[in-house]
Amino acid sequence: MNIPSSARVLVAGSANLDYVVRAPHIPAPGETVLGGAFATFPGGKGANQAVACARAGGADTSMLVALGEDAPGAQLHASLAGAGVEVMCKRTPELPSGVAFICISDEAENAITVAPGANTALAPADLPDLHGYSHLLLQLETPIATVTDYARRARQAGLRVVLNAAPAPADPLPAALLESVDILVVNEGELAQLAGDGGSIAEAAARLGVPCVVVTLGAAGCVASDGGEWLAQAAFAIDAVDTTAAGDTFCGVLVAALARGAALPSALREASAASALACTRAGAQSSIPGHADVSAFLDAHPATASAERLLARCLGPR
């Protein structure tokens, strides 16, 4: 693997301990469902993406995170460090570590409620020296003012700023944030929330003014803008067990691939393969594959389905 010396990624964001229960279906409002197996897994969008980036190989990965002085915080720290992530931890004795409550249906769909706890304490003053980093990866499970400040300062320092705008914000993103983003990663719902629901995917993405927009399309695959041209990567066919952290795996692997010099089409293919593999395993960080597993999967799947329909879906009316 020919790796540039500047392949260093900083992930700044959330970490949550996931409390997961499986059930025949996700409860409707007011409904009680008798569930099955219960387990806890280290998770949180930021931490998941950091683990995915580190396991992808070829990019040194650090994470700035806020954790409580509690057992979940110790478990989350250990999971990050065990994956090879350099942990830059802000401890918050006054706040517990973040937790998430997840119900997973027999169809591998999930519903998630997050109690952010310590994640709300991540502040602009916590950003470390950015010298030596090539990419900053951000999400929206920490305060938006902090995310905006980090993106602005990283752009000024010459880093490529990647924002996964998830979970979908209730309010429009600050213009100062979008102006500082080089690559925006969203699903269709998040894109509609940010840009409005009119026109095609390509037209909606253009309204945001971000140089590169990657739109994930679930089991169909993903599309991405690259210098005004749209690319498509069809999904890999798998039997899904648990879709938790599939999107986070995609983001972390995508950034790792770009940091080590991969072209966008190759990075999309690697990220899609890793995301597919994550869906075949239970849990968040426990489901994220390593570089060897992704390489073997790609060797066994040298081509995916035609991307023509995805491009038509991107450029045509929604």
User: Taking strands numbered 1, 2, ... along the chain, how are they ordered across the largest sheet?
Assistant: 5-4-1-8-9-10-11-12-13
- Give me the count of strands: 13
State the order of secondary-structure elements, H for helix, E for strand: EEEHEHEEEEHEHEHHEEEHHHH
The CATH level-2 architecture is identified as: 3-Layer(aba) Sandwich
- Mean pLDDT equals 93
Short recap of the structure:
This protein is 33% helix and 25% strand. The protein has 10 helices and 13 strands. A hairpin with a 4-residue loop joins strand 11 (212-216) and strand 12.
Please explain how this structure is put together.
This protein is of the alpha/beta class and 318 residues long. The protein has a single domain (8-15, 44-97, 117-315), classed as Ribokinase (UDP-N-acetylmuramoyl-L-alanine:D-glutamate ligase). The chain has ten helices and 13 strands. Strand 12 and strand 13 form a beta hairpin. Helix 1 (45-56) crosses helix 7 (246-259), helix 7 (246-259) runs antiparallel to helix 8 and helix 8 crosses helix 9 (291-300). It is globular and about 50 Å long. The mean pLDDT is 93.
Labels describing this entry:
alpha/beta; 318 residues; globular; four-stranded mixed β-sheet; UDP-N-acetylmuramoyl-L-alanine:D-glutamate ligase; 13 strands; 10 helices
Draw up the topology in text.
Layout: E1 8-12, E2 16-23, E3 38-43, H1 45-56, E4 60-68, H2 71-82, E5 86-92, E6 98-105, E7 110-115, E8 135-138, H3 144-156, E9 160-164, H4 175-178, E10 183-187, H5 188-195, H6 201-208, E11 212-216, E12 221-226, E13 229-234, H7 246-259, H8 264-278, H9 291-300, H10 308-315
Parallel strand pairs: 1-4, 1-8, 2-6, 4-5, 8-9, 9-10, 10-11
Antiparallel strand pairs: 2-3, 6-7, 11-12, 12-13
